Amino acid sequence: MNIKQRTKRRKLVLSIAPVLVIASLLLGLMAGSVPVALEDIWHALTARGDSPQDTIVFDLRLPRVLIGLLTGACLAASGAILQGVMRNPLADPGVIGVSSGAGLAAVITMVLLPQFSYLLPAAAFLGALLSSVIIYTLSWDKGASPGKIVLAGIALNALIGAVMNGVMVMYSDRIQAVLPWLSGGLNGRSWHHLSFMLPYAAAGLALSFLAIKPVNLLMLGDDSAKLLGQKVETQRMLLILLASLLAGTAVSVAGLIGFVGLIVPHAIRLMIGDDYRYLMPASILGGAALVALADTAARTVLDPVELPVGILLACLGAPFFLYMLRKRSNWR
C-alpha cells in the first residue's frame, strides 16, 4: 500500500468511526424488549417527563449505553498502548494481569466481604493497579523488557486464577453473586456506576492521547528510542500504569470483558498502519462502538433472556485471536 492509499484509508476510517459510535448509541437506546422510536428518544433527552418511554430511555438504557461506550473505549485504548509498548499484537489487558487482578479483588469483596459490596468498583480498580505494579517489579532486572513483562504476567495470571478458584470452592454457597460479574456484563448498570467510572475514564482517555508520541518511539525499539533521548524504562512503566488505569476502570464497572483490547487495535492497525496518531483515536472510537453494539445484541437477540456481553465478545474474539496467532509472523 502506497502513502496516498494509506492516507485515504486513514481519513475514511476516522470519518466512519464517529458515525459508528453515534449509531451504536441510538441503536442501544431504541432496541430492547420495549422498542422506542427516535422521536421518543429525543423527547426523553430534551423534555424528560414521566412516561414509560422516558423512564426506559433516560433511567435504564442511556446510562447503560454510555457505560458500554466508555468501557469499550478504555479497553481498546489500554490494548493499543500495551501492543505498542510490548511490540506484540497479542498483548492486551489480560496479558499483564490487569483483568485477573481486578477479578480477584472483586471476588474477595463479593465472597469474603459482602457487607462492603458497595466498594466493589474501587476494589477492582485497586486490584488492577496493584497487579500491574507487581508484574513490573517481578520483571525488573536492570530494566523490564516486553518479553519479561509478558512472562511475569502469565505467571501472575496463573497464580491469581488458582487463588480465585480456591476462594470460590471454599465459599461455593456464595458463587452465584460472583458469576455474573466474572462473565462481564452491563445489566443493572445505572447513573451511579457511570458517575464512578467517568472521572477515571476521562482522565485515562485524555492521557492516552499524550501517550501517542512515546508509544510511537517505543515501537522503534529500545535502542532507537534511547538514541532519540527517550527514558525508555520510565516511559514503559508509566504507559503500563496508564493501560492499567484504563483497563481497571472498565473492569471495575463492567466485569471481566475480554478481547476488546486485543481485537480492536489490531484490526484498526491492519487497516491504517502503526502510526498512533491515527491508531489511538480510531481504536478508542472502534472499541466504544464494538462494546455498545455487542451489549445491544446480547440483550436483544435472545430476548427475554439476556446474554452477558462478555460471553458474546469472547465468542467473537477467540476466532480472531487464533487468526492472529497464524499471522503473527507479519508483525514487525
TrEMBL record:
Q: Name one Pfam family in it.
A: FecCD
Q: Does the keyword ATP-binding apply?
A: no
Q: How does the record classify its membrane topology?
A: Multi-pass membrane protein
Task: Report TM segments.
Answer: 62-82, 94-113, 119-138, 150-171, 191-212, 238-264, 305-325
Location(s) in or outside the cell: Cell membrane
The UniProt record lists the keyword Glycoprotein? no
Enumerate the UniProt keywords alphabetically.
Cell membrane, Membrane, Transmembrane, Transmembrane helix, Transport
SUPFAM superfamilies hit by this protein: ABC transporter involved in vitamin B12 uptake, BtuC
The positions making up the signal sequence are none
> What family name appears in the similarity comment?
Belongs to the binding-protein-dependent transport system permease family. FecCD subfamily.
The name on file for this protein is Iron ABC transporter permease
